[in-house]
Amino acid sequence: MTAKELRQKYLDFFKSKGHAIIGSASLIPENDPTVLFTTAGMHPLVPYLMGEKHPEGTRLANCQKCIRTTDIDEVGDPTHHTFFEMLGNWSLGDYFKKEALSWSWEFLTSPEWLGLDKNRLAVSVFAGDEDAPFDNEAFEIWRSLGVSEKRIARLPKKNNWWGPAGITGPCGPDSEMFYWAGASDQVPESFNDDNDLWVEIWNDVFMQFNKREDGSYELLTQKNVDTGMGLERVLTLMNGLDDNYKSELFANIISKIEQLSGKKYGESEATTRAMRIIADHLRAATFIMADDKGVPPSNTDRGYIVRRLIRRAIRYGREIGIAEESWTKEIAKIVAHDYAGVYQELGRNIDKVIDWLKEEEAKFKKTIEKGEAELEKLLSSGARVTGGHAFDLFQTYGFPLEMTKEIIAEKGGEIKNEEEFAEKLARHQELSRTASAGMFKGGLADASEESRRLHTAAHLLLAALRKVLGDHVYQKGSNITAERLRFDFSHPEKMTDEQNKEVERLVNEAIERKLPVTWKEIGLEEAKKEGAMGVFEAKYGAKVKVYTIGNEEVVSKEICGGPHVENTAELGHFTIQKEESSSAGVRRIKAVLS
Ligand code: GLY
């Protein structure tokens, strides 16, 4: 089975159960300041799981691109990735446990769909605690589907509770499905969560709770279903393979790495691990950079993750003997070639990715040269290099600990007090975590009132910018916390003070006029014809929500998921705090409401 067939089968199945198929959203979450990347298919759907109406209805399914960096250190084994595709189906206050579990079982086992051997499947349900009781309902549904009691594990929150995607938001008990990846004549009678040969393949989450900032749970207004199936894992087992990196999704990437390094995948454990890391990291970095809201490598937030992925890949490239000057772009080209049929943005944006990779590789090379020179100095002074020295090299030049170790090992030595590195790093991270804690406050993830107001202000701001600066102004991104709005837009030069004042005045005028904010649901083409502004086309379905501000005289009309205030009178006073450059041709405004 190919990845294309698997995606199609999944979507066809859920279409046959009345689901609308929606596109993958951007990897950069819109208006959720609590996380850097889209981590699951449910993530872009948070407002709808919280009760907003979705224009495509109450049953949705898709294949969503996701990034999870929490597992970055596990990458290198056969199953972990930082980037992966998640197949998912959702009920927004529509069907619940019975349908969700029965359909999952049907899709997995029916010969018409995946046709997996029932004897190789096992499941788990939530065991219950002070937040929610034992999920007897899910347990009974599994039994009625024919799953033996010994294959239904009851597990605690650590295993059988999913969410929220960020710090706050929808979550709930879940029920997971596992496939026996060992020999078919050795399937154990009982399911045991500790045995790695039972591979988790699908997760049905019963999203009935909202986690609040204080850590408590409140019931949502509606009962939802959120499911997530890892495409890479299922593809691997459908093809009887024991390693995701042997699947068709990685074939071209790995073969390019083999060609560049002159080594063979599988020839040694170290080589295999290095090749997996390179393949995973460059695939992830390419997807992040090639997103329509893509970010280049840098030293902050998302850019730092991109930098880390690329530099780690380069370092492992060195380890397996890749000597070429600028090679990471060769992998990116393959990723774009392999995936552009499914994710068109990879085709659209690959030139930009190639430029960024070339630049980043040159920068890293300089870093390495400087670090190596410093290290040489240290060594020739006769000093024993310590973990503390290694940390200073890392801190000043971004020179990785592993490289320090490598160079010293080449000279037949080893680092003294290596643990100093980890100690200093932990202290440093503690400080920067405190500094960025502000970033995790509030946000649309909990649909807080402040961010709702700022979100409406963002629409007024765009309209005012277009009026004052011209029709070349489009929204390029936005980030809303409970305290402020950050808004990126296309404009080639710094705004003058007069333009700034005029934009502010127009927004405040719209606020003072107490204009109604209304929405309707129409076809995407019709919305465009009506002149509604849109931002990130890729994720729109056939039907969209259009928010209008004003009545006879329309001030703003935008395609948007919401939520918004009902009247501009709720906004108070709008002030632009800062206008600055964001990147080439893009300006950034920071604004507040008081
Ligand atoms: N949101 C479901 C999952 O990630 O498994």
Outline of the structure:
The chain is of the alpha+beta class and 594 residues long. It has helices at residues 3-16, 46-49, 97-109, 136-144, 157-160, 231-238, 248-261, 269-290, 301-319, 328-339, 345-380, 387-397, 401-410, 419-435, 449-469, 497-512, 524-529; strands at residues 20-21, 59-67, 83-91, 121-126, 152-155, 161-162, 169-180, 198-211, 217-230, 475-480, 485-490, 517-523, 543-550, 554-559, 574-583, 586-593.
Describe this structure in words.
It is globular, with a radius of gyration of 26 Å. With 594 residues, it is of the alpha+beta class. The longest helix is centred in the middle third of the chain and has 36 residues. The protein has three domains: 236 residues, Bira Bifunctional Protein, Domain 2 (BirA Bifunctional Protein, domain 2, 2-Layer Sandwich); 190 residues; 145 residues, Threonyl-trna Synthetase, Chain A, domain 2 (Threonyl-tRNA Synthetase, Chain A, domain 2), CATH 3.30.980.10. Strands 1, 2, 3, 4, 5, 6, 7, 8 and 9 form a nine-stranded mixed beta sheet that branches. The protein has 17 helices and 16 strands. Helix 7 runs antiparallel to helix 10 and helix 9 crosses helix 11.
Number of domains: 3
Quaternary structure annotation: single chain
| Dominant shape | globular
Rg over alpha carbons: 26 Å
Bound molecules: glycine
Strand content: 15-25%
Provide the CATH architecture of the largest domain: 2-Layer Sandwich
- Assign the CATH class of the largest domain: Alpha Beta
Helical residues, percent: 25-40%
Low-confidence stretches: 432-447
CATH topology heading of the largest domain: BirA Bifunctional Protein, domain 2
Count up the helices: 17
N- to C-terminal separation?
57 Å
| Number of extended strands | 16
Structural class: alpha+beta
- Relevant CATH superfamily of the largest domain: Bira Bifunctional Protein, Domain 2
Mean pLDDT across all amino acids: 90
Major β-sheet, in short? 9 strands, mixed
